[in-house]
Amino acid sequence: MDTIFEDPTTLVYIAGAVAAVLFLIWRGSQSKGVLYGMLAALCVAGGLLAADALVETEREYLESTVDRIASELEQKQGTTFLANLDDDYTGFGGNKVGLTKLANSRIKSTLIDSISIKECEIELTGELAKMNVLTRVMPGGAKKGLRVLLRLTVRWQKRPDVGWRIISATKPKIVMPFGQ
Q1: Cα separations in angstroms, 117 against 58, 122, 127, 138
Q2: Residues β-bridged to residue 123
């Protein structure tokens, strides 16, 4: 199902190639059966593209949430991040209260020009997700021009009443600091 809803590109190309071959055959034969086959292949390709556009998978939801968190942190806001912390959170910062205090103090005090997600690998297993994230942070202020790559692992759990929540996270590790 991931192939259909997350990246149907290969299947669309196959359906398009089948339609192209059937078109060439139809031009020579003018057979209605071949024409209908070509139209069916084009409908399959269109249906795959529509399914990809209309259905947000669990993986796509998590990716968009992380993108939204990064965008908000860049604006010195942590609304989405804090709203997605599970009540039973444990990990970097201790528990939910500890991480909330840490996040609020750092969000307000850290000068950040930009944050972008460079990699986001997600392993889904039922109601659990393990996300390995690589971010690029470009500080402002005295450290303007410096770029830092940070890697962390975030674990999510899908709760029946509230949806996906962050249940743990590792301390971000500097992978590579580099200047201009």
Answers
A1: 18, 13, 23, 12
A2: 130
In angstroms, rounded to a whole number, what is the distance separating the alpha carbons of residues 146 and 173? 16
Q: What 3-state class would DSSP assign to 13?
A: helix
| pTM to 2 decimal places | 0.69
Structure tokens at 164: 């996906």
Which residue stretches of 85-163 are H helix?
96-109
Residue 11 has pLDDT above 50, yes or no: yes
The residue among 21, 55, 69, 66 whose CA lies nearest residue 41 is 21
**Inter-residue contact 73 to 112 (CB < 8 Å):** yes
Number of neighbouring beta carbons within 10 Å of residue 135:
20
* 44, two tokens: 């399959």
CB-hemisphere CA count at 13 Å for 104?
8
The mean-pLDDT minimum among 26-35, 83-92, 120-129, 156-165 falls in 26-35
Structure tokens at 115: 């944050």
139 pLDDT exceeds 80?
A: no
Residue 93 contacts residue 99 (beta carbons within 8 Å) = yes
What lies within 8 Å, CB to CB, of 51 at 6+ separation is 4, 5, 8
